[in-house]
Specification:
By secondary structure, the protein is mainly alpha-helical. Helix content is 80%, strand content 0%. The two termini are 26 Å apart.
Length: 71
């Protein structure tokens, strides 16, 4: 049984993937602006685990929302 390949489906998947990553990065920058501190500095330099969890869980939550919207 041959596998069918649709170029349109691949293009749609790529568009949705790029759009999803763009929204994820944009939401991270919005979170960074809403917090009273700089997220990257807190996580990397001060090794603040709570802020790292906040950023990670926010990214996971937004990723789940984007995946649900795309699916």
């Amino acid at each position: 049984m041959p596998i069918e390949f649709h170029l349109g489906s691949l293009l749609n998947a790529l568009i949705y993937a790029v759009f999803g990553v763009f929204i994820l990065v944009l939401s991270f920058f919005v979170l960074d602006k809403l917090t009273p501190f700089h997220l990257w500095k807190e996580v990397v330099e001060k090794q603040n685990v709570a802020v790292a969890l906040l950023a990670g869980l926010m990214a996971l939550g937004i990723a789940i929302i984007i995946a649900s919207a795309v699916h």
